[in-house]
Amino acid sequence: MTVYFAPSALTEAVAYKKANPATKIIAGGTDLLVKFYEELDSLAGLMDISRLAELKVVRTGEEVFIGAGVTHEEIADHPWLQENVALLCQGAAEVGGPQIRNRGTLGGNLANASPAADLAAPLIALGATVELAGAQPAALPLEDFFTGPGQTKLQPDQIITGVKFARPGANQGGAYLKLGKRKAMAIATASVAVLVTLEKGCLADLCICLGSVAPVPRRAKKTEDILRGQKLSSLDLGPALVQLQAEISPIDDIRGTAQYRRQGAEVIFRRALLQAINNLGVEVNG
Amino acid sequence: MAKYPLELTVNGQKHSFQVEADLRLVDLLREKLHLLGTKEGCGKGECGSCTVLMDGKSVTSCLVLALQADGAEIVTVEGLGGESALHPLQQAFIDCGAVQCGYCTPGMLLSAKYLLDNNPRPSREEIRRGLAGNICRCTGYVKIIEAIEAVAEGRYGR
């Protein structure tokens, strides 16, 4: 029979997880119950962190913190986040439908570690670190957190408490685009988040992260290298698009073929890049 | 078998239970409270027929453990209105022919209520997005959208 425990404070949750490392953590349950409902008995137990107030915090400012228990709907509808990190709100708004967004959480989206996770790509593009509670508090770049489909560096005694990232500057713009079978309720066939930094008419810096085209959300660093420093007036996407193909490794599955993903990734990457630049009020062709 | 205490409010009435951890909110509503308006369709959060309001927010009750609703306020379709006093959305669904087999209707009504609670004058596109988590296999959605528009336009009072 399933053992159930709902801690009332984070310290209590950490102590319980240390004593019961095999316990599964449940928050919104929108992934966990889909996967495990018919075999809940096989789980060592459930620790329900869905009502932990400490994980529901959003701190805005030069350094942004979003707690693991914040729901997709709360991110998508957050006025300050919409103003400052629209690409993250776009990702949150793309998750499932309203009912799923009302339950599903940021921490769950990361812990579930789907290569298609709609929050992972925008957060990686923002350079986010994931904060972990455990015997020792720890933080690591989200980019390095995922190790394979459904797999992360999270240790059995650790709990994701949230993500942290710097507020993008006035010369930084972003976009998140998702290709799926429907406009809603679809798991991404391919997705891309782009964050650009513009200086003196140049693409001074950028970060590209793609979803659903590799075993983990994948940075396209060499594609970034090709584009970094280019003048916006003579932006040449050709070589970058060739490099992009070399940095992804999509597979055939029920949501699409590898070939379709390659074509789709290229299209949405181009659109996202131009959208990110346009969002800063700069017209550009490419 | 281990049982855990649970207190929650359903359609304005307080209830206390001792339940097992694997009982879902949809099971509690249907089997313990005999509120059969809430339907289970897919059991995977895809179809929306088990939609209820939990603390004012629409949720698929097949993906919420009953114990996760401890302390919560739940509204099911029975709490929306009854035969003697239909909710405007219910009356609009009838008038617009938005009901065929009826299986999706309770979930559609609660998703529509959540939408209008947060956005009283939604565009047609916003209505469609608001219903994105509810599947109807009969109507083709058009009459459901028209019924919600009718309420949003104030044709059923405010």
How is the secondary structure organized here?
The complex is a heterodimer of chains A (286) and B (158).
Chain A: E1 4-5, H1 10-19, E2 24-26, H2 32-36, E3 46-48, E4 58-59, E5 63-67, H3 72-76, H4 79-84, H5 86-93, H6 98-103, H7 106-112, H8 120-125, E6 129-133, E7 138-141, E8 146-148, E9 151-152, E10 159-166, E11 172-179, E12 190-199, E13 202-211, E14 218-219, H9 221-227, H10 238-247, H11 258-278
Parallel strand pairs in A: 1-3, 2-3
Antiparallel strand pairs in A: 4-5, 5-10, 6-7, 6-10, 8-9, 11-12, 12-13, 13-14
Helix pairs in contact in A: 9-10
Chain B: E1 4-10, E2 13-19, H1 25-32, E3 51-54, E4 57-60, E5 73-75, H2 77-80, H3 88-95, H4 105-118, H5 124-130, H6 142-152
Parallel strand pairs in B: 1-5
Antiparallel strand pairs in B: 1-2, 3-4, 3-5
Helix pairs in contact in B: 3-6
Task: Please give a structural write-up.
- The complex is a heterodimer of chains A (286) and B (158).
- The longest helix of chain A has 21 residues, at 258-278.
- With 286 residues, chain A is α+β, with helices and mostly antiparallel strands.
- The model of chain A has no long low-confidence stretch (mean pLDDT 95).
- Helix content of chain A is 32%, strand content 23%.
- Chain A has helices spanning 10-19, 32-36, 72-76, 79-84, 86-93, 98-103, 106-112, 120-125, 221-227, 238-247, 258-278, and strands at residues 4-5, 24-26, 46-48, 58-59, 63-67, 129-133, 138-141, 146-148, 151-152, 159-166, 172-179, 190-199, 202-211, 218-219.
- In chain A, a hairpin with a 6-residue loop joins strand 13 (202-211) and strand 14.
- The radius of gyration of chain A is 19 Å and the shape is globular.
- By secondary structure, chain B is α+β, with helices and mostly antiparallel strands.
- Chain B has 2 domains: 3-79, Beta-grasp domain (Ubiquitin-like (UB roll)); 88-152, Orthogonal Bundle (DNA polymerase, domain 1).
- Helices cover 33% and strands 16% of the residues of chain B.
- Chain B contains 6 helices and 5 strands.
- Chain B has a 5-stranded mixed β-sheet.
- In chain B, helix 3 crosses helix 6 (142-152).
- The radius of gyration of chain B is 16 Å and the shape is elongated.
- The mean pLDDT of chain B is 96.
- Chains A and B meet through helix 6 of A and strand 4 and helix 4 of B.
